Model the fold of this input.
Amino acid sequence: MVDALGEIDRVLAPGGTLVDARPDSRVPAYVERRTPRGFQRFGIVNTSRLELTNDRASDRAIARVVGDGLFRRGRRGRFWHRVEFNSLPEVREYLRDHQRFVHSAEWVVDSAMRRRHSNDEFAIRRAVRFELLRSLGRP
Amino acid sequence: MSGGARHAGVDVGNHIPAAASALRPLPQVELKHWGGYRLVRDKRVLDVGCGDGRLALGVARSATRVDGIDPDPEAIAAARRNAREAGVRNVRFAAGAAQRLPHQDASFEVVILSWTL
Done:
């Protein structure tokens, strides 16, 4: 990972900008049911242990190239993004197949509620983090 | 629609790398959060891990030139197809690894790692 960042530093002009954007595994994602007035939380979805490990490795790689004086940290932030589904079974299928998340949600509503609204529209709301890094030029 | 998530009215599968990008935020949404189109306007941009070109094609209208690189040849084929269909001429896609970029020193003003690290 540090190798890739070093290579990016090579092709980036001094003063250029590197954008690092990825899902924010430091906060959970949420399963939400669409209602006429907005969204109702149905469950919480955590990131898989493997992806948490990968994300921490990415963080360390960024910290290292910043520490080495290749980049200076700039603007950073987080926003929320909804992936929409037509039913709760589709959400379950997505979680079962998706590698980033654990494969089942922690439900915050009871099973009767989930059955009653199984065919409603749902979304998984997840956080996306970003950071802009300024190239300082090769020392 | 069945068998997967939907985004902006587009049916997508779960595992195909080229289609998986449809589950991500739209390019204009990501760009807005990063500071808007001025970030890439009249700049040479490299999209590392470009997949099917979702973001590269999204910024191409503002950028001088966009290069996309991805280790998945199928994704690169999809990116080239998407560029042709969109009529975007200032993008180039190549299969390759981020650890060995086929570009000259200091050839970009912006490098994007979107959902790549």
The radius of gyration of chain B is 14 Å. Chain B has one domain: 10-112.
